[in-house]
Design brief:
Elements (H helix, E strand, L loop, with lengths): L9 H8 L13 H23 L8 E5 L6 H11 L3 E2 L2 H4 L5 H8 L30 H8 L9 H5 L3 H15 L3 E4 L1 H4 L3 H8 L2 E6 L2 H16 L13 H4 L4 H20 L7 E5 H6 L1 H11 L8 H8 L10 H14 L7
Parallel strand pairs: 1-3, 1-4, 2-3, 4-5
Helix pairs in contact: 5-8, 11-13, 13-17
Length: about 350
């Protein structure tokens, strides 16, 4: 039972990763490139395992960003990666999802933050550009967690995860970097906060945002990614199939409420020193103070460059694009459904 129980073969892996690829009008994946990279990764697994077998001892902290989709988590990811003395998974390193420790030590040059420090941050629904920019590490999380039709795994599903070796992989990465390791992937982490805290002894930064702005941004993501509002975008609760019978706005509002409820209810069980909550508006209005609060909370050295920070944040806004009629629709849905969940 100690061996990986859910390691998917190549076909199964890409069926899960590519479940919505045919619907996309932007950010489509390339199967040819991905299969080549998969084969390369597979060839490195034995070298990765050999390295992990030699690892003994404690490593710096693992810190996860959590929050509902479109809450500003990618911006926070970029800010922390750039301005705090913290390690993160780069786009270059993310290509080696089966052997990240081997790749970091033998295949990649030392990660540099300089290439993203001169301009404003940009991203496309969690995806950043540039080899050294922070990655969500999605293929890594699918490799280890093997999500299928939704992202809200059952207790039984959670027992099939090889937590000891996942922990060793991430802790060895933090050890290799020599600093706390920052990780962010809302689809794979939001519903597993309790398990990840228990199994990985992790810490969490929870970013919140005005729900109307979140929902309007999720709706906009559906249009931009799929060209239609009928296709589900981002985190999939276990009730996704039943929710598909509702209107697009009702689906989105349930998605928001379910995610927010799960995050709050799981974080509530954690000791205060393991968690910190910040609102997106705080980060936009005073990014330096927000970074300092994180730095102090988790004892991370900061290297904030105020002049660069202002350039990176200047084009961001805490306000969504909802017009009056949509805001009224949102309020109707809020009154109709919010009592079904208990967020604070």
């Amino acid at each position: 039972m100690k061996n990986r129980l859910v390691q998917p073969d190549m076909r199964d892996f890409f069926e899960k990763i590519y479940h919505d690829n045919g619907l996309r009008i932007s950010n489509r994946r390339s199967l040819f490139k991905d299969v080549k990279q998969y084969i390369l990764n597979k060839s490195l697994v034995h070298k990765e395992k050999k390295m992990l077998n030699s690892f003994i001892g404690r490593a710096p902290d693992l810190i996860f960003i959590v929050g509902v989709p479109r809450s500003g988590s990618t911006l926070l990811h970029q800010l922390l990666a750039e301005h705090l003395d913290i390690a993160y998974i780069s786009n270059a390193l993310s290509k080696y999802w089966m052997a990240p420790n081997y790749a970091k030590q033998f295949l990649l040059d030392n990660q540099s933050k300089s290439s993203i420090s001169e301009s404003r941050f940009s991203s496309s629904y969690g995806r950043t550009s540039g080899e050294n920019s922070p990655s969500e590490f999605g293929y890594f999380w699918q490799y280890w967690l093997n999500h299928k039709d939704h992202d809200q795994l059952s207790e039984n599903d959670l027992t099939t995860i090889d937590w000891p070796n996942l922990s060793k992989t991430l802790n060895y990465l933090a050890h290799n970097f020599g600093s706390p390791l920052l990780l962010k992937n809302l689809n794979y982490i939001n519903f597993k906060i309790s398990s990840i805290y228990e199994k990985l002894d992790a810490k969490f930064i929870h970013i919140t945002r005005n729900p109307a702005d979140v929902c309007s941004s999720i709706y906009n993501a559906r249009i931009r990614e799929y060209g239609s509002d009928i296709n589900w975008w981002s985190i999939r609760p276990k009730s996704k199939k039943e929710l598909s019978e509702l209107s697009a706005w009702e689906q989105i509002f349930h998605q928001y409420l379910i995610c927010e409820y799960e995050i709050y209810s799981q974080l509530e069980k954690l000791p205060p020193e393991k968690k910190l909550t910040l609102d997106y508006s705080q980060i936009i209005e005073d990014p330096e103070a927000s970074l300092i609060s994180i730095s102090k909370k988790f004892s991370i050295k900061s290297q904030i460059q105020s002049n660069i920070l202002k350039k990176q944040i200047v084009s961001k806004s805490s306000k969504g694009w909802m017009n009056n009629s949509l805001e009224q629709k949102f309020e109707q849905l809020r009154r109709k459904y919010e009592s079904s969940y208990h967020t604070t």
